[in-house]
Amino acid sequence: MDPARAGADDEAPDERDPLQQSGAADHFYQGVIAWVHWGHERGAIRSVSGREIQFEFPFVTVVGERRSVESLHPGMRVGFDVGQTSGGLRVTTLKVYD
């Protein structure tokens, strides 16, 4: 065992860690819904780093208490996971925290 790592699990959470700040122990990336376009069935998430990642309604799974894309609106805090597609990086899973 690495002596430098001894007791590492006992350390206080890093206050700069977005997962710890949001209270999200589910290990999703953190962000907010940047926009939703109902006519085109698309939207985008702005990550804590500022990157905008798009999603399409038919290809995103909403988990948690709100399990419908109809409940999504700009400004909502969300957790998300991504996948690589031929069109680039896309959101595959959303978890609404608000």
What do these coordinates show?
The protein has 98 residues and is mainly beta. The chain has one domain (26-96): Nucleic acid-binding proteins (OB fold (Dihydrolipoamide Acetyltransferase, E2P), Beta Barrel), CATH 2.40.50. The chain is built from one helix and six strands. It has one helix spanning 18-21, and strands at residues 29-37, 42-47, 52-56, 61-63, 77-85, 88-96. Strands 3-2-1-5-6-4 form a six-stranded mixed sheet, with no helix packed on it. A hairpin with a 2-residue loop joins strand 5 (77-85) and strand 6 (88-96). The longest helix is centred in the N-terminal third of the chain and has 4 residues, at 18-21. It is globular, with a radius of gyration of 16 Å.
The overall strand count is 6
Please report which band the strand proportion falls in: under 5%, 5-15%, 15-25%, 25-35%, 35-45% or over 45%: 35-45%
| Mean pLDDT rating | 81
The tally of structural domains comes to 1
List low-pLDDT spans. Answer: 7-23
Straight-line N-to-C gap: 41 Å
- What is Rg? 16 Å
CATH class: Mainly Beta
Secondary structure: helix percent:
under 10%
Going by CATH, what is the homologous superfamily? Nucleic acid-binding proteins
